[in-house]
Amino acid sequence: MCWQNFAVMLFNSLHFLLFFIIVSVVYFALPHKYRWMLLLGSSCYFYMVFVPIYILILGFTIVVDYLAGIYIEKSEGKLRRYFLLASLIVNVGTLGFFKYYNFLNDNITNFLHGAGYENQIPYLDILLPVGLSFHTFQAMSYTIEVYRGHQKAERHFGIYSLYVMFYPQLVAGPIERPQNLLPQFHEEKSYDYQRVTDGLKLMAWGLFKKVVIADRVATVVDNVYDNPMNYNGTAFIIATILFSFQIFCDFSGYSDIAIGSAQVMGFKLMKNFNSPYQSRSIQEFWSRWHISLSTWFKDYLYIPLGGNRVKIYRWYLNLFIVFLVSGLWHGANWTFVVWGALHGFYLIFALITASIRTKLLILTGLVKLPRLINFFNVLITFSLVSFAWIFFRAKSLPIALHIVEESTRGLYDNLIELTLNKTLNFRLGLGISPFELIIAILSITLMELVHLKQRRGSIRVWINSLPVYQRWGLYYLLALSILLFGVFDQSSFIYFQF
Amino acid sequence: MYKKLLLKVMLLSVPIVLLTGLVNYFVDGAFVFKDRSSEIASILVSGNNAAIKYVPSNWGDLQTAVVAEKIKRGRLTPNDIMVFGTSRSSEINSGLFHGGAMFNCVIPGGNLLDYIGLYGLYKSSNLLPKYLIISIDPWTFHERVSVTINNKRHSVADPNIPLTVNPDLSKNLVQGMRFLDLENISNPAVNKESNKIGLIKELFSPSYLQSNIEIGLGKVVFITNNNFESDYFVIRSDGGYSQSKETQIDSIKVKKKSMDFLEIHRGNFFLKGDTSSLYFNYFQKLLLAIKKDQVTPVVYFSPINPLVYDGLVQDTIVPIEYAISSFCSTEGILYIGSFNPHKYGYHNTGTNFSDSYHPVRSVVNSIFYKHEAELKKIGIALTSNSN
Prior knowledge:
The complex is a heterodimer.
Chain A (H helix, E strand, L loop, with lengths): L13 H16 L2 H17 L6 H20 L3 H37 L17 H17 L8 H9 L1 H4 L7 H9 L6 H34 L6 H32 L17 H7 L2 H12 L9 H19 L3 H19 L1 H11 L5 H24 L3 H24 L13 H23 L2 H7 L2 H18 L13
Chain B lengths: L1 H26 L9 H9 L3 E4 L6 H14 L8 E5 L16 E5 L5 H13 L6 E6 L6 E7 L2 E7 L11 H10 L12 H12 L2 H10 L5 E4 L8 E3 L9 H5 L1 H15 L3 H4 L5 H15 L3 E6 L4 H7 L6 H13 L2 E4 L23 H10 L1 H7 L9
Parallel strand pairs in B: 2-3, 2-4, 4-9, 9-10
Antiparallel strand pairs in B: 1-7, 1-8, 5-6
């Protein structure tokens, strides 16, 4: 028996820390003309820690898109479109095969069983290449922009490969645009103390969110969501709220480390999150959550479908399609499609009822209390988003529906139990000690306070303006918090599975 | 220009790293750097239970320390009953046996080489017992390695790599092999270099720091009369230990652990067995040598969680269990228990197992009581059944 170790190089691992230090030091030691080689080589190594042979798949799509870009630029008329189509088919085909083959086969099986037939199509034991959804979209963005004339085709194969494979954002984004990232590989980056330290601080903040918050609350979420028949009411609600923060801290933590590590070397990646849980509407939420993906869908799906420059019902349909596809992008399971559909529904409902709600606020006089309105808007938006997360996290639709049902019915039972039993018989059995829960809640509160502070101005600028002893006090506090309260059992990032 | 950055990074990281190292070294709750085996052995040989903050990492050292302590105190009368086993037999307890001294030589995660090492240790000290219960696990003849699957660490058995002995029993293994007239196994217990790397990792490990801070000013080792102490691991005076009460009654966690175990181990050794291996031959020699030493061996098979057993084993008997029990039958050696929990009426996970393969004490006791007559026949008397 040969045990195969399947692992990505996690950002919260010693392996990555050593890798990052070595690459960064050698990067600045090398002359500019050799740096792309170092970055490409290290990105290849980073990717091959997973399943080495899969680099051939990545290599194949890179070659196709590199050539497609050149031929799109060189060609005229319909030929340009054919080259673009070829590139898109290869990319979507690769993504479709690895990610959706078995899902599609499952649905065919169910359909045929319903009709009394057997499905002869074999299931394949396919391991999803890490980061496939992300770098596929990034590559597609390149060929589309070349086709649109917004981007010149990259002639340097190594630089183009690096655009797809750049290790900080290779496995989970941000999904970059060629106009932003490609030129940066041609520019010579010099060492800048302030930029490097800012990058390191961002990485530390990302690590805090990941190991102190996300991994700590993951225990509760996994216990409840993986054993739904053993829980009800309060436990589901708590686990769902905690999952809202788990997925945010996990993903935004990863993004911060990605952006920070790129920043150290002088590369500016796009911001991927902007305090999404302080959004006052679903529309605002999607301008603050996974920004690189939502803007990708806006530019390459929503606008080509017509956007909002069509009749009203077609506009709503466009929105719904975008969210359905976004849901499916996240995973090969109907739960993700329902999650996307819910957000589509939320958005459309908000648009339809916008004027009614405004009139109601005026009628009730609440329009004179903007802070109260904002507060409730934030609360309602968070609740809607958290409700939709149930479908995102649950393993199947029946389980998700069970959780939804029990969240209300079970909650009533729990409240009765709490009021009738004045002793501590009421136990949720969440699998986390009260101390750990307090740490999680305090950390989440701290994080949201930082987000609130950021609304008034850059937190980085504020920290840099503090007296040196206060600044260093904060640095030590952050480092010690990670050390003392972090969970170091090497859990992967949630978005790696996409 | 890099100096400023380097200086500030060092100013931040060096004190923190130093603090981590100092706390880990001086508190050392799991005895990674300092040997507390003698301290624990002294408590056990005095007839008391030892409460320790964390599960020790050097069980072989504890076993040799127990023998050394007995010799030091002049306790040169061998035990009536001893157990060579792993965590799956740690619940075999002195309360089961009527009269006479009993000691459970637990080596968690142990394998056949550890048993040969223990045999060498006790034979060379003239402390072999009258009865020796040898606990067999499905992986007793296979090395277990740590692998990362889907970014989670798992301990799995790999028949393709040679067995290694607990480092503190390596000298005793040489003695044991000599007693068995076997060629010396040339693989070293633990690669010394990788052990050093392991120690450095633990010294600066944030997880270990957190564990040590939890101990705080509390005791690392103390005497207790209880089998369970809140937040402590208790080694009984008879050498065994129990999983904590919380672990035993949390059937939700047990089920989850079992499902995870199944997911990792599908297609593994349970279905194959390995009766042709060199180690099976060594095991046969060990049993015969024990008999020759006028010690009565008893082979014990501890049951697996039914959820795991049903998921991994197609037949009613695991091949390795069949091979061993056949050999025992031929040689007139008593064997009790089975990997198959259904044979003893354990069809559900319930609260009978603390995880995928550790039965709780009541399960272990009930297996012994089911074989009371056979045990009595060879001279092992059990106390009255209070289950």
